[in-house]
Specification:
Helix content: 10-25%
CATH topology: 10 Kd Chaperonin, Protein Cpn10, Chain O
Largest sheet: 6 strands, antiparallel
Strand content: 25-35%
Order of helices and strands: HEEEEEE
Radius of gyration: 20 Å
Shape: elongated
Number of helices: 1
CATH class: Mainly Beta
Number of domains: 1
Strand order of the largest sheet: 4-5-1-2-3-6
Number of strands: 6
Amino acid sequence: MKNKSTDGSKEAATASTKKNTNSKSSSAKFQPLGSRIFVLPVELDEMSTGGIFIPETAREKPKRGKVEAAGKDAKLVKVGDEVLYERYAGNKLVLDHVEYLVLKEDELMGVYE
């Protein structure tokens, strides 16, 4: 009986490990072309500095994000950079229920250091 439960837990651990190694991020499934940049917007706070709750409909669109992938012609940024872009720049792209932006490199205003 003891061996059975041990084998079962080994199988469960193996299945869990396999599941984690097989899962890839959404950016791994999408490669921008040319000088386009694939950006994950940084969410803004739900509370103001004074402690007032800001409903989603009243919040500003994010202007800052993290580069998840970059096309082969992108020269100014690399994966992992935090960038600043214009509020209404780019096109929305939803992968695995996560909203990303696809921006042209010339739509970026700067890179945070």
